Give the backbone structure.
Amino acid sequence: AVLLGGNNANGIYPLKYFKGKFDAYQRTYVIESLDKNKLNNRYLYYVLIPTLEHLRLVSTGATTKFITRGIIENIEIFFPKIDSQQKIATILSNYDNLIENNEKRIKILEEMAKLIYEEWFVKFKFPGHENVKMVDSRTEFGKIPEGWEVDELSTLAKIQRGCSYRGNELSENQGITFVNLKTILPGGNGGFRRSGLKRYTGKFKDSQRLFAGDIVMAITEVTQKREIIARPARIPQLNEENITFSMDLVKIVPGGNMNKDLLYSFLKYSSFGMKVKEFANGVNVLHLNPSKILDYKLVIPPKEIADKFSFIVSNIFQIIDNFQLKNQNLRKTRDFLLPK
């Protein structure tokens, strides 16, 4: 069946093709072909995608936009003979199946990196741990391996704020790559969503440049759901000479024994995010004071252990980047074919 969400604050209605058993929420429309010899359900899904912008424009409601059954039933669609529908649906679904498989692989890789982090830095079962004595840290962390330290993030990293900008300095095709809140919205595996990237024509400082592997984090949240604040994102390889980021984000730069891979894993897989986001305040827009990020304490391994961890997980992160790039190209090709 084709499932269409019938209400949304911004009039952006999710459309899904679903195969299997399901229950539907009362504002979800379940759309099916009355005669599958005339209209293929999977084809119906693809032919409805271009109508979503029309649905956004004709939807009603003030605070929450919604679409009525009558609006949906009056949509006109073009459909060729059933054999052509099936061919079209097969070609397009092959792209979606590849994207879905890559998304599953990304989740598995993310889980692998998380488990390695927890094994080494939560359970302290790092390589050679059998020969290391546990000692009292005299902190809330209790016993830690001998030679490890407990310290605040402020001694191991520094924070750099993104650049302020005006709306007319953003573009779709002019200027340099610009990373903003939309690139790290929930739904971006690995914490980063390439589709949110913009172009920027304004000025920026050297400290506001980004490179592959850099870590950024949102300090502003406009939805009040606290889903973005303290959610780290790792910059993938973008093949761009100049990349900068918005003032709604901060870049967290590691130092000492803390490398980028370990810092990113700590920010992503520990309790850091849940604790720090509680310091955010505001009515309509949440703001997090960047200094609160550096107040957080963590257990620091010797450089040798940090480097070994980085060697392993950096390969995992690189494979994740490759899968994300593949999915970006698959979506572009699928979306190029859709209107044709």
In short: The two ends are 23 Å apart (CA to CA).
